[in-house]
Specification:
Layout: H1 2-13, H2 18-32, H3 37-45, H4 47-50, H5 61-64, H6 68-83, H7 90-105, H8 117-121, E1 126-127, E2 130-131, H9 133-143
Antiparallel strand pairs: 1-2
Helix pairs in contact: 1-2, 6-7
Length: 144
Amino acid sequence: MHAQAKSDIQQIWMANTRKNAYKAFDKFISRYQAKYPKAVACLQKSKEELLAFYDFPAEHWKSLRTTNPIESIFATVRHRTRKSKGCYSRRTILAMVFKLCESAEKRLRRIHGFKQLEHVINGSKFVDGVMSANTAILKIRSTS
């Protein structure tokens, strides 16, 4: 059942539009509601947050859908702090964790579509990963 549920969840977050994601979400709910009501309730409660990446450029979706950057940084920190457990004061362990995070930051890959960040920061609206026509027209008018 786990493999099927995983596949059904993947259909939600890999949908190419929010509308298709909602359809896959509803299909998931109807399929698993009876057997796993708590899990379904948890997903329903966080539906909008889970699908928030549709409001960003499609180029960013690959970066937004993954937790690998966070996991890799904390894996490095966890590895080092376990080895030195009890050897440092609170102050020195915080300094070590800070330096480890700073070091790991250098190895992070750049966000996909980083040139789109300007539009996101300026408040451009994206629908299913594409800048909405109204936002593009306003940008053109404001620059001329």
